[in-house]
Amino acid sequence: MSKVLDEVLTANQTYAADFGDKGKLPMPPGRRFAILTCMDARLDPAKYAGLAEGDAHVIRNAGGRASDDAIRSLVISYKLLGTREWFVIHHTDCGMETFTDDVMRKLLRGSLKTASVDANGWHDPGGVGSHEGEHISWLTISNLEKSVVEDVERIRRLPLVPGEIPIYGYIYDVRSGRLVEVPEATAAGVAR
Ligand code: ZN
Questions:
Q1: What percent of the chain has pLDDT over 90?
Q2: Which of 66, 90, 103, 143 could disulfide-pair with 151, CB 3.0 to 4.6 Å?
Q3: Is a pLDDT exceeding 90 seen at residue 1?
Q4: How far is the CA of 175 from the centre of ligand 1 (A)?
Q5: pLDDT digits over 29-40, tens only?
Q6: CA–centroid distance, residue 96 to ligand 1 (Å)
Q7: Ligand 1 centroid to 64 CA: how many Å?
């Protein structure tokens, strides 16, 4: 068994041993909100936003971007499970600021092995690659504030999203743990 697999299963046994009443939680999030945020390992939405099991939906992807699939989840979140407020939370030092679609596509054409990065950018170790990366928009970030504004605006414009849901735009600072508002985003996401 891999070390990680062993660690995860051991941690889960400890967690489940003290599960208590959580088995009785209803499916809809009790505090009726959803967070769209980045998958970055330094971000723990349960901690930075004070969540317990059953409180809120947390939708995560690379960058916390309003991708088609994130939107699918958000629509399900209100339409079937009753959330009433949404947060879009990107963060400082996001990996999505370190490359572009062109760079990612070139790296994948180079090989499928893990790339390395230094002051001169990303480098591929070489090997057998794939052109499939050409068909994916990697939703990279060139300006953090702008990416939050764009994503809030995109969600706000969707015909499937009711106007009464406020969408708040924030940047999580990985150095301090603080959430910093992006006022232009929150203004774009204001409930109508
Ligand atoms: Zn990130």
A1: 99
A2: 66
A3: no
A4: 13
A5: 999 999 999 999
A6: 6
A7: 7
> Containing H/E element for 88?
strand 85-91
User: Rounded CA gap, 99 and 108, in Å?
Assistant: 13
Measure the CA dihedral 89/34/79/65, to 10°.
20
Structure tokens at 41: 């390992």
Beta bridge partners of 90: 171
Closest CA to 59 of 48, 51, 49, 71: 71
Q: Strand 33-38 and strand 56-61: pairing?
A: parallel
91 Cα–ligand 1 center, Å: 6
Tell me which H or E stretch contains 101: helix 101-110
Q: Does this model's pTM top 0.85?
A: yes
How many CB atoms sit inside 10 A of residue 16's CB?
10
